[in-house]
Amino acid sequence: MAKLKDTLLKKIEEHRPRTTALLKDHADVKLGEVTIGQAIGGARGVRCLVTDISYLDPMEGIRFRGKTIPETFAALPAVPGQEYPYVEGFWYFLLTGQIPTAAEANEIAEDFKRRAEVPQYVFDVLRAMPRDTHPMTMFSAAILSMQRESRFIHEYHKGMGKMDYWDPMYEDATTLLARLPRIAAYIYRMKYRGDTHISADPNLDMGGNFARMMGIDKPYDDVARMYFILHSDHESGNVSAHTVHLVASALSDAFYALSAGMNGLAGPLHGLANEEVLRWTQNLMEKLGGKLPTEKQLKDALWETLNSGQVIPGYGHAVLRKTDPRYMAQREFCLKHLPDFPLFKLVSMIYEAAPPILQEQGKAKNPWPNVDAQSGVIQWYYGVTEYEFYTVLFGVGRAIGTLANIIWDRALGYPIERPKSVTTAMLEEAANKAMAGSAK
Ligand code: AMX
């Protein structure tokens, strides 16, 4: 894929002096102080990661390469005749910061097709696993199984200059990304559709082919495009993105790094929340004999969840302090395509009821919905009712952002990550010193 790589190399060469100058002349400039609360409390708010691919403002939400979600969707070339853009064009955009032309997006789509064939041994690995294995475990294992093909590790062992690391990383990442829709659809149909499979159509883009291989009619192809783009990147500090970055910082290749990131995404406080949301709403409707709850029944159910020490899935965020624009983008899709769907109505009722209850409880810093509160409803509407599969869909999307990031990590020569730990006694000593200081 000469053109994207050429553009990317140009961007890398333009960028490198900025990183070099910052390190050479300003390395001691402080970005903030780290408190005891942050050291114990999951490093919340500690500014110690760098990425130019996306930035998460607590009030505004995500911007991809400086663009909001609506701006991104509007700027990227749409697949002909479809509502949503090429995922492949979005990959170009995340990597270079440049909006591709329709021809450029199509070229990437062609390159993805050339790389998309999944080797049989990957299916063999999946087939050897007990059929009740969680689909995220299968997804992660499938990714890891392909590590033997890594160009990066091959070139590394041959001997390669550090400045060139990004190139085989790009090759691995692109091949991996191109294969993920097939792997995800294979897991889905093996587990839930009687082990029947549908091959890709060489005339379709990534979103179109994913819908086809899942066996779901239009507009599921647009759902896939929207879903993959919305879930791609949320700056670097979230568990999946940070894990991919951390593992890759040891010069582990893209296969090792992405597989590890997927294991983090599979946690219920992170990507698995979309599964939890559907489990919660389905349980509630089941209890009520399949009917929508009254306002009172819903409030009681939300309080019951909180009082039993559980979280309300799909609500809250470590950084955001308003409704997630990824939630809103999906809500708009629902209002257009499935406004009367009972599950969407229930999710909309929760959207009204949950925030004031979380505020009244007074624990969650952000009482508003995140991306996961809305995404399962759309899947359910189009027939993907097996909610344990939802995080795999998130994973295909998250691969786009995390892989783009580790290509840039290599291009800018980011070192192995190694923060310093302290002991509890050291924290106590620091606390005592601070107390003594303020008593003076
Ligand atoms: N329901 C109930 N309690 C919640 C809550 C929720 N949705 N969100 C936060 N809280 C609680 C926390 O558990 C914590 O309680 P504690 O003091 O007893 O430990 C307290 O409020 C303070 O937490 P916070 O600072 O507001 O959030 P956080 O940064 O520690 O955690 C998150 C963020 C997302 C893990 C949390 O809001 C949560 O558990 N939400 C529900 C799960 C969810 O939707 N996860 C998906 C997030 C998006 C994603 O990554 N896919």
How would you explain this protein's 3D organization?
With 440 residues, the protein is an all-alpha fold. It is built from 20 helices and 2 strands. It has a two-stranded antiparallel ribbon with strand order 1-2. Strand 1 and strand 2 form a beta hairpin. The site of amidocarboxymethyldethia coenzyme *A (AMX) has 22 residues, from loops.
Summarize the structure.
The protein has helices spanning 2-26, 36-40, 69-75, 87-96, 102-115, 120-128, 135-145, 151-158, 166-192, 206-214, 220-230, 239-249, 254-265, 273-287, 295-307, 325-337, 342-361, 372-381, 390-411, 424-439; strands at 54-57, 61-64. It is an all-alpha fold and 440 residues long. Amidocarboxymethyldethia coenzyme *A (AMX) binds next to loops.
Helices and strands, with pairings:
Elements: H1 2-26, H2 36-40, E1 54-57, E2 61-64, H3 69-75, H4 87-96, H5 102-115, H6 120-128, H7 135-145, H8 151-158, H9 166-192, H10 206-214, H11 220-230, H12 239-249, H13 254-265, H14 273-287, H15 295-307, H16 325-337, H17 342-361, H18 372-381, H19 390-411, H20 424-439
Antiparallel strand pairs: 1-2
Helix pairs in contact: 4-5, 6-7, 6-9, 7-9, 7-13, 8-9, 9-10, 9-19, 10-11, 11-19, 12-13, 12-19, 13-19, 14-18, 15-17, 16-18
Bound molecules: amidocarboxymethyldethia coenzyme *A.
